[in-house]
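Bug #77: duplicate submission created two jobs. Keeping one. Sequence:
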Amino acid sequence: MGKAQYLAIAGALVLFAVLYWGFGTTPPPSRHSGAMTAKAETKDVFERLLQEAKASLSEEQSAAIVADEAALTQAGADKTRISVMKSLSSHWFEYGHLPVAAA
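Kept job's structure:
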């Protein structure tokens, strides 16, 4: 082997050593843990809005919402579920609870 080959091998070893021991080998903490917390908080906010909206309904309005929710749990086909969801959303919109209607 010639001098150039020894220099190339030595350079590769030095470069490997610098990269391996000179820099951190552990990844930074994940940023997704905050996203999961935000998702859980969003669900909690919606549940709170839903409870407040249901508490403010009259008996007639509450009966219509309960009937739509029952129909939603019994709906099997996607087309049926979509039509029931539209009906449920339109009831919430009609009763003035826009955030619940939009979700």
